[in-house]
Inverse folding.
């Protein structure tokens, strides 16, 4: 399936994200939200995880503001997730790009390589990736920390959360329609 890119302010962003994700959601998938609450530019994952956790979804969610998945513990979470043998793992993380891409959410098949943007070597994770472009990679790290607004990160996290919920809802309704058509035959 071709990846999608949508700006978080696009009024159909959550629907587009959900429509892509619904094909990857079954009764045995999980979501891992990568990042740390200690740095605004890297808080998209745990903020999204917290928002998703408040929705009381019937899915395992790893990485919240209270229990983030970050460089220091991602190896542990990778082992936990492999042991649980999920059919699909959806990984969510922030990334840096050029200024014109700020606010873009990309959803694609394949793993996330966390930390790559800042030169860290961490394990790839996920079967499907959701990446939010939070700022420009052309800035010095100190400037990134000073310039990135929490409101931007929060709004992107809200759209990703709405997209995940929409995907679950779309998948559920499609399953109901299939069951209804089978039982009417």
């Amino acid at each position: 399936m071709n990846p999608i890119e949508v700006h978080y302010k696009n009024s159909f962003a959550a629907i587009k994200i959900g429509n892509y994700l619904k094909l990857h959601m079954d009764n045995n998938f999980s979501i891992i939200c990568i990042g740390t609450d200690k740095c605004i530019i890297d808080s998209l994952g745990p903020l999204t995880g917290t928002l998703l956790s408040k929705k009381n979804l019937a899915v395992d969610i790893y990485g919240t503001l209270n229990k983030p998945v970050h460089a220091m513990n991602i190896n542990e979470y990778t082992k936990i997730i492999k042991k649980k043998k999920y059919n699909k793992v959806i990984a969510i993380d922030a990334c840096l790009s050029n200024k014109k891409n700020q606010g873009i959410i990309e959803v694609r098949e394949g793993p996330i390589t966390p930390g790559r943007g800042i030169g860290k070597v961490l394990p790839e994770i996920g079967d499907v990736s959701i990446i939010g472009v939070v700022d420009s990679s052309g800035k010095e790290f100190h400037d990134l920390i000073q310039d990135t607004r929490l409101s931007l990160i929060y709004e992107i996290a809200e759209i990703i959360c709405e997209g995940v919920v929409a995907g679950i809802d779309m998948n559920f309704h499609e399953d109901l329609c299939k069951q209804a058509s089978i039982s009417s035959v």
Notes: The chain has five helices and six strands. The two ends are 32 Å apart (CA to CA).
